[in-house]
């Protein structure tokens, strides 16, 4: 019986930047945070933006640059989606905030990941805690949706907006990690990773690691297989055939996508949306088609039959193409 591997490290953690300067794609945010480190004076911060754009990484790198490698003694990290009630604010957070910092930096940091999951009562209690202990403790709130943070808390924070990585940045990140892991990326693989990741650095690394587990040479097909996505050109061909009125052929391609790639209805709708937006048609037609995509996406989320809804969407494309003609 073989021993299980114990040295497995997800590449998301293995290649997490340790310093602010190593964060990819957030130059403006990094520049502002470096200024805070230089002054050793950090206000309450609100990091807002999509997943996988470096919010948690920036918080950890900021703490490491302020306090050094022993930053854990002055840095409390909580996931607000797990501990989201008012008791956590009144207990664990308040106890940590009221104690003085032990290092030469005159304050400690509390990092609340997924702060938009905090209840309204917890946010109201947090607002008062942020005021009362601002001399001894500063807060970093991390939220995918800043609108879910109450206005009084937002007004107490310096807001940082994190942008998704560009396709070029995603591809460069994949190439850098592949070189470090001695993985060969074949032609088209970096671009496929960027297309799958959609600006999410975490997904770049996860997809690359999953594909590299199949062999030390990674192709575009490998990326699409592990990410359960169809080739963009295949989805584009399905959309083009429907637009040209060839409904049966478009439907056959839909069958192929479902059977060959095992895609869910929502996956296909997302890829179809991207192709519709890039169609060479007037904006008035795009507006109508995007509205239809939104309608069928909503129906799928409500539990409607995937096959019927996807074919109905193709029928809408056929009708729009006939009107254009």
Globular, elongated, flat, extended or rod-shaped: what is the shape?
globular
Instruction: Write down the domain tally.
Output: 3
By secondary-structure content and strand pairing, the structural class works out as alpha/beta
Integer-rounded radius of gyration: 24 Å
Helix content: 55-70%
Largest sheet properties: 5 strands, parallel
Order of secondary-structure elements? HHEHEHEHEHEHEHHEHHHHHH
Distance between the termini: 67 Å
Average pLDDT, rounded to a whole number, is: 85
Q: How many individual helices? A: 15
Instruction: Give the CATH superfamily of the largest domain.
Output: P-loop containing nucleotide triphosphate hydrolases
Total count of strands: 7
Low-confidence segments: 1-6
The portion of residues forming beta strands comes to 5-15%
Main traits of this protein?
325 residues; alpha/beta; Rossmann fold; Helicase, Ruva Protein, domain 3; Zinc Finger, Delta Prime, domain 3; 3 domains; five-stranded parallel sheet; two-stranded parallel sheet; 15 helices; 55% helix; 9% strand; disordered N terminus
Commentary on this structure:
The chain has three domains: 151 residues, P-loop containing nucleotide triphosphate hydrolases (Rossmann fold); 60 residues, Helicase, Ruva Protein, domain 3 (Orthogonal Bundle), CATH 1.10.8; 93 residues, Zinc Finger, Delta Prime, domain 3, CATH 1.20.272. Strand 2, helix 4 and strand 3 form a beta-alpha-beta unit. The relative contact order is 0.09. With 325 residues, the chain is an alpha/beta fold. The N terminus is likely disordered. The protein contains 15 helices and seven strands. The longest helix is centred in the last third of the chain and has 19 residues.
């Amino acid at each position: 019986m073989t021993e299980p591997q114990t040295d497995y490290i997800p590449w998301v953690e293995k290649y997490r930047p340790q310093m602010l300067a190593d964060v990819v794609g957030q130059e403006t945010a990094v520049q502002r945070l470096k200024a805070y480190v230089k002054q050793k004076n950090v206000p309450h911060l609100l990091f807002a933006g999509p997943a996988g754009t470096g919010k948690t990484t920036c918080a950890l790198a900021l703490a490491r640059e302020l306090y050094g490698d022993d930053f854990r003694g002055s840095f409390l990290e909580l996931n607000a989606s797990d501990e989201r009630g008012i008791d956590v604010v009144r207990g664990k957070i308040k106890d940590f905030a009221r104690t003085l910092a032990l290092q030469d930096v005159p304050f400690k940091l509390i990092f609340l990941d997924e702060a938009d999951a905090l209840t309204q009562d917890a946010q109201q209690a947090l607002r008062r805690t942020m005021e009362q202990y601002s001399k001894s403790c500063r807060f970093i709130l991390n939220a995918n949706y800043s609108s879910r943070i109450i206005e009084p808390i937002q007004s107490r924070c310096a807001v940082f907006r994190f942008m998704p990585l560009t396709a070029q940045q995603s591809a460069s990140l994949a190439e850098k990690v592949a070189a470090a892991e001695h993985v060969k990326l074949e032609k088209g693989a970096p671009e496929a990773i960027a297309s799958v990741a959609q600006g999410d650095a975490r997904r770049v690394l996860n997809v690359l690691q999953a594909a590299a587990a199949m062999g030390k040479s990674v192709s575009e097909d490998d990326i699409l297989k592990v990410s359960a996505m169809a080739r963009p050109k295949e989805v584009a061909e399905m959309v083009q055939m429907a637009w040209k009125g060839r409904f049966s052929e478009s439907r056959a391609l839909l069958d192929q996508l479902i059977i060959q790639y095992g895609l869910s209805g929502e996956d296909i709708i997302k890829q179809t949306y991207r192709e519709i937006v890039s169609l060479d048609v007037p904006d008035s037609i795009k507006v109508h088609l995007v509205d239809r995509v939104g309608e069928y996406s909503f129906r799928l989320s409500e539990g409607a039959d995937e096959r019927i809804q996807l074919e109905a969407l193709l029928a809408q494309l056929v009708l729009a193409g006939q009107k254009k003609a």
